[in-house]
Amino acid sequence: MENNKKPKKELTIDQKIKRRNFISFGVFAVMGGAAYGGWQWLYKAPKEAAGITAGARQPLRKALNKTELFFRNFFSNNHLVKTYPKEMAVKNVRHNSDIGVQGKFVVDDWKLRVKKHTGEIINITIDQIKALPKTEIVFDFKCVEGWDQIQYWGGVKLIDFIERFGLAEETKLGYVGLMTPDEKYYVGLDMSSAMHPQTILAYEMNGKPVPVNHGAPLRLIIPVKYGIKNLKRIGSITFSDTRPPDYWAENGYDYYSGL
Amino acid sequence: MKVIKEKHSLLMRWTHWVNFPILTIMIWSGMLIYWASDTYSITLFGHTYFKFFPEGFYKTLHISKRLAEGMAFHFLFMWFFAINGLLYVLYTLISGSWRELVPQRKSFKEAWLVLLHDLHIRKMAPPQNKYNAAQRIAYTAIIIMGFGSLITGLAIYKPVQFNTLTWLCGGYHAARIEHFVLTIGYVLFFIIHIVQVVLAGWNNFRSVISGFEVVNEQPKPAVQPTPKEDGE
Q: Is B3 near chain A, with CB under 8 Å?
């Protein structure tokens, strides 16, 4: 093709400057506007529909779930929480919340209710649990709020418990759900975190029976999760392939909350 | 005569401006998280000089009781922060522009002279290329700080899965402090950065948006003076 146009006159320096300024500042303004608009969209995004998780902006919940999938790739039973000598454990273990452990409760009447996937329910006493090999752990307990504290717990590995009470079939499912007897506090755990060798059902704190405000007679200690998953006073344990209800996930927190 | 002098690459400008809102959101959401356990203060010999943060600060910025929200924002924008930073670092390494950025041996001595000059104590500033000695140090430091935020952040985000990182940071507790101190560092950097940009003026500011500076060059004489000797 022939170019019929007259050869363009070369732009003067001032024209060049003007032109480049116009383009770059134009793009800058448009992108700035888009960024602002994008932020407004995200900030004002509607809350997710209340279900197993609730309370978070819809796009942010999606992001939390996607991020969970990414970081699950790094999870391994060989990755252990750092442990400390007993002397380093605090004497005054921080007590942060009473949800699920308020109201009248007779420790001696307690029995753990385990629901198998067949629907069968087994009731287990604290003595049956104490008869299992004891595991102790001194580790840095981490709260989602940001504080951490070296604490000393003793109890039964959840995997030992599973084996003893014939629950191996159940561990093929994706999740474990735990609930307080009053059903006011509940957590859901992905199976791999629950089966981590440092996950224990604790009946001792600092070498003595767990006090009532820390979840007597039996509580969960799961070092691969934030404190919010370390349910006090376990009433029931269930297994499922879908996420069991989780108190803090219903309040805008990440369901996984893994460390 | 006015001449257009190219200064900043397109990628440097993009990553710079993309980083600005991202880092702002990271600092803001970080404060929403920090509020839940706001234990840090500047205390010397039993006297507390400053508490991070005073009640009025939280109130003005509506920071209180938004931990879950803060975490949700923080754990989304961390991706953008990391990707954008990585992009810049990769580009700087591959393009070779790191040579104009990283401090040279003389930079540490020269940076002092730059400081004296900027404070109007010394008249002459040392000669420079794209960045002066103080800029080389500051802009390299801020990249290292960004890297530090990623490492300390991962160390407190997944202290069990990435326990080596946590160990490198001196433990979980220390990593959280470091993560916080780095953030304070960004704020201080930002303040100085803004002051310097204002002082440096329009031509400099524009170059970070449009990429070029306008400089005055002596017009070349129409008739070239004959060289005294042959050859170059």
A: yes
Q: Does B17 touch chain A (CB under 8 A)?
A: yes
B75 → closest Cβ in A21, A64, A76:
A64
Q: Is the pLDDT reported for residue A56 higher than 90?
A: yes
- How many distinct structural domains can be found in chain B? 1
The verdict on residue B221 lying in a domain is: no
Q: Mutation test of the interface with chain A: which of B6, B160, B176, choosing the one with the most A Cβ atoms within 10 A?
A: B160
Give the CA angle between residues B128, B133, B139 to the nearest 5°: 115
Superfamily classification of domain A58-251: Oxidoreductase, molybdopterin-binding domain (3.90.420.10)
Measured between CA atoms, how close is B110 to chain A, in angstroms?
33
- pLDDT digit string, tens, across residues B92-141: 999 988 888 888 888 888 888 888 888 888 887 777 777 887 888 889 99
B160-197 burial: b if 16+ Cβ within 10 Å, else e = bbbbebbeebebbbebbbbbbebbeebeeeeeeeeeee
Q: Does B64 touch chain A (CB under 8 A)?
A: no
Query: What φ, ψ does residue B177 adopt, rounded to 5°?
Result: -65, -45
Cβ contact (<8 Å) for B160 and A223?
A: yes
Q: Burial level of A108, CB count in 10 A (0-12/13-18/19+)?
A: exposed
Has residue B229 got a pLDDT over 80? no
In a domain, B232, yes or no: no
B226 within a domain of the structure (yes/no): no
DSSP state letters, A13-42: HHHHHHHHHHHHHHHHHHHHHHHHHHHHHH
A63 with B4: Cβ contact below 8 A: no
CATH number, position B12 = 1.20.950.20
Residue spans per domain, chain A: 58-251
Q: Which domain holds residue B211?
A: 2-216
- Is B103 domain-assigned? yes
3-state secondary structure (DSSP) of residue A70 = helix
**Pairing of β A236-240 and β A112-115:** parallel
